[in-house]
Amino acid sequence: MSMQTPLITVLTSYYNDQDFLADAISSVLAQTYTNFEYILINHASTDKSREIAHSFQDPRVKHIDLPVNYGGSGNILIQKALDVAQGEYLKTLGADDMLHPDGLEKLLTTAQAQQADLVFGNVSFVKEDKTPLEKTWFEHRYPANLPTVKYLSYLMRKVSVFPYAGNFIRAASLKQIPLDYVSVQLADMGVWTSLLLHGAKLAFAQDPVADYRIHKGQMCSSANFDIIGLRCQFEHFLFYQHFFDAQPSLKLLKELFPEDKIVSQLTENDQEFYSFCFVHALYHLKVNPVCMLACRLRLAQFLNDYAFHQRLEKRFGISIRQLREDIVKNPVLVRSIRYPLIPDGTKGIKQTIFGLLRKSIGLGLLLVWKINSYFKKENPKKNTGGFV
After folding, report:
1. Which mean pLDDT values do the consecutive 10-residue runs of the chain (388 residues) have?
2. What is the DSSP string of 139-197?
3. What confidence tens digit (pLDDT) does each residue in 3-21 have?
4. How far apart are CA 228 and CA 230, in angstroms?
5. pLDDT in tens, 192-202
6. 94: nearest Cα among 220, 201, 236
7. CA–CA distances in Å: residue 4 to residues 8, 9, 10, 30, 84
8. What H or E segment, with its residue span, contains residue 353?
């Protein structure tokens, strides 16, 4: 085995993944491209996962055994790997997923040929027992090779457009962005968003490079839709900070918001207003209630700067009055809804439809009860005309 500095760092973190971990490790060690190091992070497992990981005897494998569990897998574990990683590129792989034998080779070839900072290879969906579902990400979820601004537009709307199992990142680019250590469900989307907003070049490997295993135990399983919705309500506030904290270029603003009247007025002399105009334009897209609340908070921060507010009003005629009136006239309600995050072969669409129907019927009955209660209160001795 060559002792040259590894060009690629592969990372797998695991927590009580004894049923799948051996498959993941074996798939990495069987790669046709061999100049890599493999960091295995034990997230304080209590089953046989650590024993399984340490059973593989390969000089490329490095073990990190964390004494405590930091909660659901997230960017804190990526940071732990970056602290010791030697590779120019980082490939993260879930403990329940598997790389195709030529996966690293395809990803590296694409990154080098296109001088890309962020590469996504296609991903095949498989069942828990590794039976193929005959579906791939680019063909059945979201296509490859769209303009970067199109993917950012999807991400603004909380759409997970990239296949996590197919990621391949230039380590230097990753070290230049702030990592959100708190988020669980949206941690990866935050990384992709920050990289693209900071100018990372995006590329795609069209062929499948990994198998994404679908099973009930995974955090984004269709069995967990309700709790995922509740978790994401908070995490969305953190997610939109990636957009708010970036310093958008004039070109990006005009591409993301081609119909926004304020953005259309921007010139190269208006750089101090770029961030405000980004938040203002995103707010008026009204993509979802959490986004609107996050934007309101950020707009309030801008407008509470009295000197900035005066310059803004003079340049664009935007007053704090508009935001205050909007808050009063258009209160925003945030509630949990069910929505599919991954295809499960048969159940995702049905569960979503029936879930929405149940909630609609429930809200209808609640409305009838409220109206009935109101009329009984107002006219206790009078027939209310049909509500019983």
Report:
1. 83 96 98 98 96 97 95 88 97 97 98 98 97 97 97 93 97 95 91 96 98 81 59 84 92 96 97 96 91 94 95 94 90 61 42 52 59 54 33
2. HHT--SS--HHHHHHHHHTT---S-GGGEEEEHHHHTTS---SS-STTHHHHHHHHHHH
3. 689 999 999 999 999 999 9
4. 5
5. 999 999 999 99
6. 220
7. 11, 13, 16, 19, 16
8. helix 348-378
**If 0-12 CB within 10 Å is exposed, 13-18 middle and 19+ buried, where does residue 46 land?**
exposed
Each residue's pLDDT tens digit, 39-55: 999 999 999 999 999 99
pTM of the predicted model, to two decimals?
A: 0.81
Question: Which tokens hold the place of 198?
Answer: 């900071």
Q: Looking at the chain, which runs of residues are DSSP E strands?
A: 8-14, 36-42, 61-65, 89-92, 98-99, 118-126, 132-136, 167-170, 202-213
In single-letter form, the type of residue at position 132 comes to P
**What CA–CA distances, in Å, run from 278 to 252, 288, 375?**
10, 16, 47
For 6, the 3-state DSSP assignment is: coil
What's at 354, amino acid-wise? F
Tokens of 250: 């004039």
DSSP 65: E
pLDDT in tens, 154-186: 999 989 999 999 999 999 999 999 999 999 889
Closest by CA to 94, choosing from 113, 106, 77, is: 77
Q: DSSP string covering 219-271, please? A: TT-GGGHHHHHHHHHHHHHHHHHHHHHS---HHHHHHH-TT-HHHHH--GGGG
Pairing of strands 202-213, 118-126: parallel
